[in-house]
Amino acid sequence: MKNTRIFKMPFASVYPHYVSKAEKKGRTKDEVDTVICWLTGYDRKGLQKQIDKKVDFETFFAEAPAINPNVSKITGVICGYRVEEIEDPLMRKIRYMDKLVDELAKGKSMEKILRE
Questions:
Q1: DSSP 78
Q2: pTM for this prediction
Q3: What tens digit of pLDDT does each residue of 30-84 get?
């Protein structure tokens, strides 16, 4: 997994795709925000600030208040890779977020998505 171009991609350019994917499956923007905030430790205001500043993924995760301690419970395949086996820490965080949004779009309950 060497495609590090995504590290410099603005988070704000991908975020609408997360929301769109979830909404097509009957979920809400609020639920997308909930899973992203759970993962990163941002509150809603902090998340919106990062979107408005158009920070790249690298900065988005570098400035994240606290990655959730339960991220190790996120397992499975996303984009053809097992998230728990991705070696690059930043890429793993990005794929964790992809996986959470994917689970949301697939109709999983919030309790299961948030590993409660």
A1: E
A2: 0.92
A3: 999 999 999 999 999 999 999 999 999 999 999 999 999 999 999 999 888 899 9
* DSSP label of 84: G
Q: Tell me, rounded to whole angstroms, the distance of Cα 44 from its chain centroid.
A: 14
d(CA 94, CA 60): 10
Non-local (6+) Cβ contacts of 27 within 8 A are 104, 105
SS3 breakdown of the chain: % helix, strand, coil, rounded to 5?
A: 65, 5, 30
The one-letter code for the residue type at 83 is V
Domain ranges of the chain: 4-110
Q: Which fold has domain 4-110?
A: Helicase, Ruva Protein; domain 3 (1.10.8)
Torsion, CA 24, CA 115, CA 98, CA 72, rounded to 10: -170
Q: Three-class SS of residue 87?
A: coil
Give the whole-angstrom CA distance, residue 5 versus residue 49: 23
